[in-house]
Amino acid sequence: MAQKPCIPKGTRDFSPVEMAKRNYIFNTIRDVYHLYGFQQIETPAMETLGTLMGKYGEEGDKLLFKIQNSGDYFSGLTDEELLSRNAAKLACKFCEKGLRYDLTVPFARYVVMHREEITFPFKRYQIQPVWRADRPQKGRYREFYQCDADVVGSDSLLNEVELMQIVDTVFSRFGVRVCIKINNRKILTGIAEIIGEADKIVDITVAIDKLDKIGLENVNAELCEKGISQEAIERLQPIILLSGNNEEKLATLKEVLAASPTGIKGVEETEYILSTLKSQQMNNPIELDLTLARGLNYYTGAIFEVKALDVQIGSITGGGRYDNLTGVFGLSGVSGVGISFGADRIFDVLNQLDLYPKEAVNGTRLLFINFGEREAAFAMQVLRQVRAAGIRAELFPDSSKMKKQMSYANAKAIPFVALVGENELNEGKVTLKNMESGEQQLLSPEELVERLG
After folding, report:
1. Prediction pTM value
2. How far is the C-alpha of 182 from the C-alpha of 306, rounded, in Å?
3. What are the CA-CA distances from residue 355 to residues 22, 28, 436 (Å)?
4. Domains and CATH numbers, the chain
C-alpha cells in the first residue's frame, strides 16, 4: 500500500481561496509600505550559519533549521566525534547553511554587502517566508511569512513614529482593532541597574517577555533559576506591574530611574514617540507596557508589539530599534529600526473575524457555458472584450452537460453565467444569468461589459 502523503508539522497548504485571502493581506501591507516610500528587496531562503548564529540569543539559535551539507559530510570527522553523539557539535560539522530565522539579520547582511549601491537612510520592505524549529501550536508555525519594513542609516525617532503610523494604517484598512504596545530596551536596562542586576539584563528581558504566556509566578521562578537574587526580584515586581495611563507611567519611571542615565534616556525617547503620535490622530490605542521585552538580543531602543483586541492570539506585529546590527558584518555605526507583520497570524485573525472584502477573495466573476464548437468560438470573441475591460472571466473548456457546468460555477462561487445558444448566436448577443437571484438578461457584448464593469 502506498504511503499516505503528508506535510511537516507546523506547515500548511493553501487553497485558491486561502491564497486570495493571503494576497489581500500582502497587497494591503505592500500598498501602505509604498505610501511611506519603502522599496522592496528579497534575500535567499538560506544563509550561511556564520550570518545567522549568535544574532538571536541562545534560545533563538536553538530554533534555527540547519541544512545538511551535500556530499561526504563525514569526511574530516573522527570516530570519537561520531560516537560522542553531541548533536550540537556534529551539526556544526555537518551544516554550513541554515534557513533564515527572520528577515532582519539577512537585511543587515544585505546592507553591508551592498552599501556602495545604497542611499541612506535606506527604507526597505521585504515579504518572504522564514523558518523556525519551534513547537507547532495554535498561531505558531514552523514556516510562516513576515512582512518587514526597516529604516537604516538614521537615528531620528521620527522613524519610530512613522512605523507606528504604518501599523495603525494597515490594521485600520483590515478593520482589525488592535492595541500597539511600546517599551524601550534602555528602560529595561535602567531597571536592571537599579535593582542591582545590570549584568543580568538579557535573562531579565527574556523572562519578563513571557509574562502574558506563563504568568508572574513562573516568570519569577525563571528569574530565580537564572541566579537573580530574591531581593532584586521583589524590587522588580512593582515596576513590571506598573499601572496607569502612559503619562502616569512615564512620570513614575522618571522618579524610579532617576539614578540611571540609560533608563532616563529610554524614558525620554518613549515620551517623544508617544507625544508625537498623540498629535497624529491614531485610530488604535498605543500603550506603554513595561512587560514588553521582545527576546531578541539585537534591540537597543524602542520596541513594539501589536495585539488584536477581538481575538485570542499572540503578537501579530513586532519590531524595534537596533543600533549596531550591521557591526557584526563589518559595518559599524549604522542604526536601524523596523517592524514585522506576522502575515500568518493576521490571516487567522481576519478569518476568525470574517473581515475579508468579497472583491478581495472572489475569483472568476463570469463563466461562459460551452454549448458546442460554434457557440464557444463566439464566446471566445466576447471573452476577449470582457477581459480587456478587466473583468475576470472564463469559458468552460468542454461542452459537457449543462448541470455539470452550472455545478462548476456554484463550486467556484462564480456570481454570473453567460449562455450562448443558437438564438443568442443569431442575434450576436449573450444571456447573462445572475446565479444568486436567477434573473436573466439578453445583452450585447458591449452591454455585458457595462453591466459587469
Report:
1. 0.85
2. 9
3. 12, 13, 22
4. 10-176+320-333+340-361 (3.30.930.10), 177-309 (3.30.930.10), 362-452 (3.40.50.800)
